Automatic annotation (TrEMBL):
Catalytic activity, as annotated: [(1->4)-alpha-D-galacturonosyl methyl ester](n) + n H2O = [(1->4)-alpha-D-galacturonosyl](n) + n methanol + n H(+)
Protein name from the UniProt record: pectinesterase
Stored InterPro entries: Invertase/methylesterase_inhib, Pectin_lyas_fold, Pectin_lyase_fold/virulence, Pectinesterase_Asp_AS, Pectinesterase_cat, Pectinesterase_inhib_dom, Pectinesterase_Tyr_AS
Source species, domain of life: Eukaryota
EC number assigned by the record: 3.1.1.11
Organism whose genome encodes this protein: Artemisia annua
Chief localisation class: secreted
UniProt-recorded Gene Ontology molecular function terms: enzyme inhibitor activity; pectinesterase activity
Signal peptide interval: 1-20
Amino acid sequence: MMKSFLFLAVILFLSSGVYGYTKSEITSWCSQTPHPQPCEHFLGTNPNYGHIKQKPDFVKALLKVTLERAKHAGSHTFTLGPKCRNKHEKAAWADCLELYENTILKINKTVDPYKKCSQVDMQTWLSTALTNLETCRAGFAELGVRDNVWPLMNNNVSYLISNTLAMNKGGNSSYGAPSPKNSMFPNWVKPGVRKLLQSSTPQANVVVAQDGSGPKCRNKHEKAAWADCLELYENTIIKINKTVDPYKKCSQVDMQTWLSTALTNLETCRAGFAELGVRDNVWPLMNNNVSYLISNTLAMNKGGNSSYGAPSPKNSMFPNWVKPGVRKLLQSSTPQANVVVAQDGSGNYKTIGAAISAAAKRSGSGRYVIHVKAGVYKENIEIGTKLKNIMLLGDGIGKTIITGSKSVGGGSTTFKSATLAVVGDGFIGQGITVRNTASPQNHQAVALRSGSDLSVFYQCSFEGYQDTLYVHSNRQFYRECDIYGTVDFIFGNAAVVIQNCNIYARKPPNKTNTLTAQGRTDQNQNTGISIHNCRVTAAPDLQGVSGVKTYLGRPWKQYSRTIFLKSNLDSLIDPAGWMPWSGNFALNTLDYGEYMNTGPGSSTANRVNWKGYHVITSSTEASKFNVGNFISGGSWLPATNVPFTSGRTDQNQNTGISIHNCRVTAAPDLQGVSGVKTYLGRPWKQYSRTIFLKSNLDSLIDPAGWMPWSGNFALNTLDYGEYMNTGPGSSTANRVNWKGYHVITSSTEASKFTVGNFISGGSWLPTTNVPFTSGL
């Protein structure tokens, strides 16, 4: 495996050319970054015959040097295994190896000369890369072992990534053709066609020592942390490679997602050593600059379109990145299984692990359904990076149960404590219960860990105490699931939407519950936890128990982001709503929001007074965190057949009537008839939306233009607009004076309601051969 690690990191560099720049160029450009010192140092040590003339040249230079430093850091980390003194250091170190590898793959994807990837892709993958490095660091801190290995791993990679994220923020990406002027999509998205994501990384031959067999590790704790790092680095390289894969078309959202994953992997690596208290031996030898480099790239890639796919269908229960075939599969009462797992021997395999091993040997990477019949399966399952498009289909919550008991208190890292761990892209879980039965006294004990990009969990249950659901990284969607826990039991740094789920707080050992602990470490990462239309209440063991305070969340990392949208919060929620992590840490930089929640615990009157906390009052702001926008769900969830709500329910619905370049006049039977008043419209519902663009309005239109439905109903909440209409009925001088009515004067605002933008017509109308005008 290590050979693969080095080969993957080097192979793209051989064709990348040399780089390095004049001192004046370096100083000028690096001064614009948040971390100019490492920027100047590493760019200055690379010879080159070219020049940085424009911002895209600088972004490319940052990406290349970031990748080089990430590769160097990953290689260095691998050599630190023998320096681990105990199982805690080894556990944290092992996390870091895996996280660094994934980080390198993410960055590689952004510089692949044969790949067209958007600015959103780049920002996504750089966010992932930076999250990986922070996860690596956190592992040592969690296990209390920061004094030995971790200092030896310190580097500037995080700073370099942060610089790239900052420089790539906003504007158009230099990778790939720009999107059509009036289209909501990058122009590589062909009508009716969207290729499945596939990794083209070379065959890996690096040895991943999950049992902690690194020669420099001194004990089982160091070996455990080190083994985690091997796995995490491998995944990091794969993720960064996806950003530069010459055979893969990736969007800016993809890139930001995968770089966020790479960064999360590195942070998880670090965290493993900390959790097991072995940071003083192997971890310091693994310290490097990869996190900074990923952070730089994330910063440079940030901005542009937030979604790379089509909007979600109006009444769909799923983001539309869920492909139609997968959607059909999930909605089928009896999906066709490739293999069956049954403890009584009536299937192909008796254990889930055996079925997963067999799936790894299958040809191709199409959807592979494993039906797990009812039963209690005492297994720890890991579905690795190469196992794509796996579906675990159970017989229902409480019937098909996967259970384990690993924990930090028992000598595992948080990362490796998961009963079910999923990394391969496109995973789907349905109808299963995943438990971690470790007691609360054993601290972190994960039931499910997902780092699977575009993963879906439908009608599942996750049961544990502290750290039950580890939404580690990448894009994830949970629908109609039950989640049980006590402390930080929904945590991680994925871009995740949890929708129509039940969140149950259990009885804690210390009188305090925290539902979430989001782990965004870089402000340019496109990650966070969005909880939409869920029910938050007490589990049976907490009902009737007094003296327990339950909070919506606390900031695990500097830029922690968690939003509760239109959820029902029961009376167990403390009036303050949110809890600090430690002192004033992150209170000014976090992003916590609440929008139109209901229930006795939803009042925001006595909420915390932090700079980073806000009550969301704008539907536009709230919609940033729905399935369609936050995880680009409209482009991939439809294929899974999992139901989802994409966006604007009530004022959040992305619906309306746009009348463009039309003629409004009297029919023959109305011509010459007097006393008839004709209006452009009236508000049937609370958030009625109608726009007239560049249309010819004849004299039959009443000067008031619009008519109320009943009294003042909806006059403040509707959205009625007119833009550059003509004809005798087009004058707006005597129009209604309602709060919701406006004359549109900006072409930018008007363009939101064109065919290209309002219904994403550029992506599907061409196949109909019906003529259309995409823009104004």
